[in-house]
Design a protein that fits this description.
This protein has an 8-stranded mixed sheet with strand order 1-2-4-3-5-6-7-8, covered by helices on one side. It has helices at 2-23, 56-59, 121-135, 148-159, 161-164, 185-189, 192-206, 209-212, 223-229, 239-255, 280-287, 305-308, 310-314; strands spanning 36-41, 44-49, 62-67, 87-91, 140-146, 168-172, 266-271, 293-297. Strand 1 (36-41) and strand 2 form a beta hairpin. The longest helix is centred in the first third of the chain and has 22 residues, at 2-23. It has 318 residues and is α/β, with parallel strands linked by helices. Helix 1 packs across helix 7, helix 3 (121-135) crosses helix 4 and helix 7 packs across helix 10.
Length: 318
């Protein structure tokens, strides 16, 4: 009886610690320099980098809206699109840290409260649609989503197909309809893996950067990729949000239909030579179900094509 009581107390204690770690608002890493404007749309941060180094007449012709992947932030797109002649709008995952040193973040008058659960693809897609509606006009509009961000863009089309019908979508190593995680990740995460998320991320915060960068997805590496990937454990404000993100990726991929591709003027899917995060085979099989999708298979790349070989993505705008 005494042993049973001790076991019950241990289980209760672990549950309490897990809840504290999951719901704690963690401190942000020091922000990087940023020259531009920031807007707050509920739980999503929107950044508009300064583009004055580019010809104004070219910038005015195209608006490029980007959404990063799971545990990523807006810095993912800065280098790849630094000199692309377009107005650049970077939308962050909801309830994630601001990666920049910020001053004067404002909320526009047109913002409306998000009706979808925090941490879901539907929540972030709603934010994308608000940006398209209120921050674009008759110019060419291109969306670029990486990984989970690809699913966010496709869901934006599902929510507002009339609004995205003339919009182009770049899906990079993307979460797609009927896609899967790498190496049967769904089975490995459910249910024990999700329960352990707060412990795993808390531990990762304490590891040296060199240890955090030892993973299969670092097969292709460079200084820019190292800098961004090294901050993965620090990007969510709360690990409960990261847990919802991950579970919802699996749910969304299983439930989304191939008609999700049909709500855009043009869809281009970039696939790495290998992918250590998402199932490359399932990604290609999904794209093959729609004539609307152009697939670009890349060489010498893994999951982070924009960081590993940015010229491949830049060629889209050539």
């Amino acid at each position: 009886m005494k042993t049973l009581l001790i076991l019950i107390l241990i289980v209760l204690l672990v549950g309490v610690i897990r809840r504290v770690l999951a719901n704690r608002v963690w401190p942000a890493q020091p922000g990087e320099d940023f020259d531009g404007t920031m807007l707050q749309l509920g739980d999503n941060l929107v950044c508009l980098p300064d583009r004055s180094h580019l010809p104004a007449e070219l910038v005015g012709r195209t608006t490029l809206i980007c959404f990063p992947g799971f545990l990523e932030d807006a810095r993912f797109f800065l280098e790849v699109h630094r000199d692309v002649p377009a107005r650049l709008i970077l939308i962050g995952n909801a309830n994630y840290q601001n990666p920049f040193r910020s001053t004067g973040i404002s909320t526009p008058s047109w913002f409306t409260a998000n009706p979808h659960p925090l941490g879901t693809i539907a929540h972030d897609a709603y934010c994308v649609n608000q940006v398209i509606e209120h921050m674009t006009g008759p110019e060419r509009v291109v969306l670029h989503g990486h990984s989970r961000g690809g699913g966010v863009l496709l869901e934006a089309g599902n929510q507002r197909p009339e609004q995205t019908s003339q919009v182009e979508a770049i899906l990079e190593a993307a979460v797609v309809p009927q896609g899967r995680l790498y190496d049967n990740g769904e089975k490995k995460l459910q249910p024990v893996g999700f329960y352990l998320f707060p412990f795993i991320f808390s531990l990762m915060r304490m590891l040296p950067e060199s240890s955090r960068l030892k993973s299969p997805m670092m097969w292709v590496t460079n200084a820019t990729k190292n800098r961004i990937v090294a901050t993965i454990p620090f990007t969510p404000k709360q690990y409960a949000t990261a847990e919802i993100n991950s579970a919802n990726i699996i749910e969304w991929q299983a439930q989304a239909g191939f008609e999700s591709y049909d709500h855009f003027k043009r869809v281009t899917l970039y696939v790495g030579e290998r992918d250590s995060v998402l199932c490359r085979t399932a990604m290609l099989a999904s794209a093959a179900q729609s004539s609307a999708v152009t697939v670009v298979e890349t060489a010498g790349t893994d999951h982070f094509i924009s960081l590993e070989s940015p010229d491949i993505i830049r060629d889209y705008f050539a």
